[in-house]
Model the fold of this input.
Amino acid sequence: MCKQKICAIIVAGGKGRRMGGKIPKQFIKIDTIPIIIKTLLPFEDVSSVGACPQQTETENG
Done:
């Protein structure tokens, strides 16, 4: 049995054209850390956010 988890969807696509940069904005670094990593780090400490293995048909009943 799997405890219920909350899913977090992080939208990080795009090319960042409006920012005028040469690399996608999610890879721009702030204090040497890419924005996408800074976005994901807070979720690492939240125990209710995570992946839960998919149940098989026999487990579902």
